[in-house]
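Hi W., the iron/sulfur cluster complex you wanted:
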Amino acid sequence: MKKNAYLHEFNILMDRKVYLPNVSGMLRAYAEAQPRIGGAYQFMPFLFVRQEPEKIARTWDNPSVLAFSSSMWNHQLNLTLARRARELFPEALIVFGGPHVPTRAEKLLEDYPFVDVAVRSEGEVTFADLLARFLEGKDFSGVDGIVYRDPVTNECVRTKDRSLVDINELPSPYLAGLYDEFLDRRGNVEYQVILETNRGCPFHCSFCAWGNSITKVRLFDIERIKREIDWVGEKQISYVFGADANFGMFPQDKRIAELFVEKKHQDGYPKVFRVCYGKNATDRIFEVAKLLEASKMTAGVTVSFQSTDPRTLILIGRSNIKIDTYRELLKRYRREGISVYTELVLGLPGETYESFARGIEEVFQAGLYDQVGIFLCEVLPNTEMDHPDYAELHGIETKRIELAETHAVRRQPGEVREYEDIVVSTRAMPREDWKRSVTLAWMAQTLHGLKLGFFIALYLFKRFGVRYTELFEHLIAEGADRDRFPVFAREYMFFAEYLEGLLSGKPQCVFLDEFGRISWQIEEATFLRLSGDLAEFCREFQVLVEKLLRERGIDFEPEEVREVVSYQLARSACMDPSRPREWRFSRNLPEYFDRLMRDLPTDIQKKPQTLAVAATDYGGKKGEFARQVIWYGRRDCRTLESATWY
Ligand code: SF4
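Structure:
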């Protein structure tokens, strides 16, 4: 009788969307292709949708092998299940692999005696070897790339490192039909696909596990990728995520983009292909982004900095493009109508409040008009940052907080909680400065990223040279006055509670029941909460701006500021179907902002103009508004209504 083997890889449920388990598929496809294993094991349906552990455990039918792919978002559930499996099936082999297995994998076995084997680095061949050896017993001394528990002495034994395999010898789980059983009865679940086009990253950012594990990049054959893209089209998969650390870096990436575009035109699927672009933007990335954008397969391109501070960049082992190059790139992408998404990380070693604020300022002043993503620095296992010496050197203090993934469904009572470790202070950024930085990031993302104050900030900078961060700091300092600015103060209080919550272990994302069952980042939550009070918010904004200009001794026309604030209000996405579609201005503000956004010379003149706003109708449904504008629309700035002027 065959031995039953179970593969667990629990992915995040985002409303009704979930990724098919790519790692499990790769493991099974390779193992099953080995005659000895295929004949001896029965691979059971992948377990990848989170549920209460007992419900999952009830699906096990006399398992001989239980393998767990562990990442930050499923590690605790895996441990809970593995512990239960050991109670129920004492003879079963329990194997852990994935990015959450520590470099010193012995620790996993010491801490969790129910785990038999920890797989180090990539797992396909190792897992197959394990299965083959397990047909004879639990002596895994000949299996490279693992730490296992010796069945006689109970000691942890580390075998020698496994050399990297030729990835083109690994069968594709998609082409092997391993997901067909799920796709054939998908109901209202939307399965998303992760496609590997290559493996590895040649860079070594200290906060990232990718560049600290497999640094040699190996490419999958273009023919295989083509067949996988054909499969995606045939199976009518809407969303593909490219598991590539630096898309656009290799010549074949352009061909891959062309294949996706051809498939969409031919079959209508996939509709979307998202990927992480190479960090040092090149002409090839530009060409690739143009191709994908023209077919509406992607929402812009990523040009990330993580930090602009030279000292921090040295400490994290990263080099970026120069800010002048970035400025030119932004213009180049803008000319093609391609939005740019830029990331910064808060809490990196060496970064101070001042350098962090300077980073935001530099990126915004360079002309980033699209999206900014500012992330709290997390300490991930197997990164340089996770090493005690590195943490000690940079005074890194972390806080373990509950994990609520962005746009994911709330965990149900009885479900296992997951955790992440965020940096809450460093030697360069003490706790109070960290709190100030998080507050600044919140304000910058709400007003600039989500565009609630975008035109006002742009106007102040272009017209009077008021720095973006100067405006944000002013709003933070003055907006908390409850009597004068009740809407600002309410949101400030909401944020302040959130911040305290973070420091006591609450999640980074929050739930707003009136906007649906998924979670939101804090700035998204602020945007949604303000969407019902936009007129009052803008009125307070105007008073705050006038106060700032007066304090700076800047000569300004209050009527002009009032009209700029009106322009901001007119362009902000809103649920109210009765709001005006036409807005009249005594100055040429529609033309002024239109030209600014196209990098054309412009100035403000007294010349009446009318702005005609699209005013999208969301049928009064808050959940729909939130999904369309934020979840699906954030990257291409649907928080702004499109408009024309005359
Ligand atoms: S952050 Fe990006 S570039 Fe840096 S190591 Fe990770 S994957 Fe590579």
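The first helix runs from residue 22 to 32.

W.
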